[in-house]
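re: that complex we talked abt at group meeting.

here r the seqs, copy pasted straight from the sheet so there may be weird spacing, ignore it
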Amino acid sequence: MFELEKVYDPRAVEPEIFARWEQSGAFRSHPGDTPHDRTFTIVMPPPNVTGALHLGHALNNTLQDILVRYHRMCGFNTLWQPGTDHAGIATQAVVERRILQQEGKTRHDLGRDELVRRIWQWKDEYERRITSQLKLLGCSADWERSRFTLDDGLAKAVRHQFFKMFKDGLIFRGKRLVNWDTQLQTAVSDDEVYHETVKGHFWHFRYPVIDPKPGEPQHVIIATTRPETMLGDTAVAVHPDPAGFFDQQESKLRDALLKCSAKERAEIESKLAALADRRATHLDHLITLSRMANDGRKLRLPLVERIIPLITDEWADPTLGSGCVKITPAHDPNDYQVGVRKNLPMINVLTPDGKIAKIMEPDPAAAPVKPGSSENIHNDIYAGLEFSTQARAKVVADMESRGLIETIEDRETEIGHSDRSKTPIEPFLSDQWFVRTGDGEPLQLGDGSYATGLAQAAMDVVSNEDIEFFPARYAKTYLDWLGEKRDWCISRQLWWGHRIHDWYIVWEGPYSDYTSDSQTVRMDLDYLTPEQRSNLAPQVFPGRLGNRILVGFAVAPAHPDIETALIAHDATQDPDVLDTWFSSALWPFSTLGWPEETPHLKQYYPGTVLVTSRDIITNWVARMVMFGLYTMGKVPFDRVYITPKVLDGRGETMSKSKGNGVDPVDVIHIYGADALRYSMADMATETQDIRMPIEYLCPHCGHLTEQSLALKNEEQSRKSRGEKLERKLQPADCLRVRCTHKECATEFATQWADDTLKKELGLAREVSDKFEIGRNFCNKLWNAARFAFRYIENAPCDRLAVSDLLPEDRWILARLSETSRRIHGFMANYQFSAIVKELRDFFWDGLCDWYIELTKPRLSGEAASTSTHSAEASKRHACQVLAFCLDQSLRLWHPIMPFITERLWQQLNGIVPNRGMPGVVEIQTNCDLISAPMPPTDGYPAFDDPTILTTFSQLQEATRAVRDLRLKGNIVPKQMVDVTVILSDTDLKSFRANAHILRTTAGIASLTITSSGKRPVNSASLAIHGLRVYVHDIGDDVMERERTTKSLADIEKQIVGKQGKLNNPGFISGAKADVVAAERERLDQLQQQLASLRIQLGELGG
RNA sequence: GGGCGAUUAGCUCAGUUGGCUAGAGCGCCUCCCUUACAAGGAGGAGGCCACAGGUUCGAGUCCUGUAUCGCCCACCA
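got the structure back, here u go
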């Protein structure tokens, strides 16, 4: 039963171990009355169900699992709350695209219910896949509590939140300019828009002035890259004070010139010159125009024949174009601002599906000015044309034929594209729902306190460090973004998501009867009982339709009777759904059962730490904090740890859409989950992202092909086929790749190929040699344990006095104590890479390479008795210490490599059920490793021994010196040598006491240790810190002279440095006393060495 | 345009309030199939710490500037 395979095989171990944990309930959370500071909660950032996970997720979840397992072993009441996110637009877009590709159908062909059904199917498939990926990774989340952002419990939470915010006046409806995706027909958020440079033109148009006064121009010239938007122009703006503007710009530049470096100087001077030119050519004209504007001059907008004002506004930049700018409030974000400022009509000329709309002309009688009800008389010419293609051509042609085009320039423009549909974005004015985050009426938070607004409240808790960011610099990202206090658009014109639970009624009546006063509205709801009415939150929507107005009601959750009554009275439910981040923002408490007061909510809210990626600090982290404070009255987590990002070989972040995401299951299949986790943790440093060059593992020959090379090859072959490359090639463009191994050179398919191609060519898994270090370590751990198991069966568990142990025993125990202590420190600061390094040093270098190698003779019974230790006692001690160190190592490694350590732990429990160091630590072994305790936070003070650590490192250096000399002297390993060590009087005693260590490790027959003496005849020597090592009978005076000369030069150089330091009065007075003392001692040593080396060199005839 | 970060061995990265004779892993070279592990062991070579100034007794570390690279945010009639 003690036989382990010679090579660790993760595939034979992992499934069995994971099943064991699940069956034993080790992942489950148990709410009780544990105090907050002994509770550890992480809510998993719910992966989107858009697709399978890649290595970025693997990193994030590995780090979470490390923290969770660590805290569980430290005795915390632990919950890791898992789940998935419906990801609104992203998922709907993926499914729609797929249906279009496979069936040629759009969502309108399918209808709302059918599309949503299809997306649920997709969700089920990917949720399963995601969960299985995470489980293969070893994630110890409380899987039975898994939640999905659209499931019933969370839907309830969303409704409660929406109703509460609506009632508190935090949710409102308004017309806003949004990024409109004409393909998916929905608003998309700023971060779902990417920009592409496109070749276009810059058209300069003339708009005629109506009734110009003498001396005034007949036309105003404006320039645009989007001519079709002119149909919606409602003004032309010119700067209110052009002369002042030029003065101001000029003085700014002059100030800059005073402060600037020589290099910037030329640039600023040329700017100044340009400004002067501009002033000369344009200022008079602009002053005229601005005077005309103030005088109320109007323009005739060509084509649609609209009368529009010439206005003044600071947005018009006198240095750009003609100095005049057309204002299209409904189709440009900046113009929109001008429209709001100057109370201009906002005329929408775009249909949701990207065509020119029927244009409604403003009603000059209405105040404030609103789009009116009269149709433009030219609608039959333009309505229905494709917006930026047909309509643009038509507008330009019509302007041309009227002779109103001044010039046309070529120009490159940045066009916003939807990340989801890859089509151009149009700014579009539409009705949307918003969450007010800015300051306003005092807002009562969940704990009863008041804030000026949601954003401010969320900023305060970070400023005063109720929430801490790791690394700290990310607090700035968070604060900067929240500081803008932008309203949050929460409505999406999608079918996949939480339906907005608002019902609205179009009320026909005198506009003036209606204010936002809820009393007025309620009077009209006679068909509801007073009790039902109290469960409605009403809101009068701004704007009106002719002489009708819109009244909205949010219905309190769980009142279907009210909804039925509303429907019966011609109320309509808002067709929109909520932004996916609305439900995500509730995640820290909705998953725990809120709005119910569940035991889980009580025990596990607020969370301890959020582990996430820096690109959602704004979208997600900030919003969770706002909602947490508003709803729960407490921050949702005490700390935020921002993980590094996983980059591919070209330095680009891994993402599903780029197609450079590697499936962690591929890596697990080849290297094992522990190897993956080890490598990930090892690379997770504080400042660097993780570069992960990817290779394809050829299914035919097993050789690796670099992905970046494959991309280059693909690019070449596309070029040679004459294909145009409009963008940088992505890994997803490589469906088939040729193996770069010369003898193979066979094609294989990659993960992006379809099933038939995969079957035909064979599928290559994607890997990275970075994981070899993890696999190698697993094997080392495995074999070290395998070795130990041979000797430590029923090792004793005696009460031992540390001082009775041999030095090497005391040394490894001191190292263990030191390591344990450091691990706790690194964990507290999320220094994962440091944890791995520390543990690897302890285990591989300390325990395997030194301790085990040193103890082999004792373990096998070959060691002779000494004056202090009988051979038998020596063996017993070694077994006990080894068993103990192995036990402790498994615990310390477990959070990082759970599978292999658990497997070895089971074995260890069978072999040495009774182990430990009584008197220092009592060990329980009747549990699985996953729930076994960690070594204590402050290590084992009883084992701490700074002296032995110092002495040992000296011995190690001496050993290395002997080994080096042996190798250089061509001495075969089995041949014993005689060695003399010369060192200072101070170190003599401790060195002698430990001399057996040097003897064992270096293959020494006779060892002389002395503080004075000459070079033994025919010996080779090396000088190291404070001591010199001679290996006898190597006999090469030429080599020896060379080495001595080199050492001498080295030491002389150091002495010069030290003397310089110590002769410097500033150093003596400025530096700390211990630093000075250490330097003095060091100098003494060096000088002693120097003297004896000089003598030696003399003897050698140098 | 604004913000953040990086630049240390051939490669990937550590280097914690300034005290360094600058470290690790991989790769490389030499030796070793020694009964835990060749996915291993022993040893070694390899660095004007991007550049230029400054502060300091002392700078890889702090300050200023320059160069290169990366990320985030905003904007471009």
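couple things i noticed - The longest helix of chain A spans residues 262-294. Residues 365-371 of chain A have pLDDT under 50 and may be disordered.
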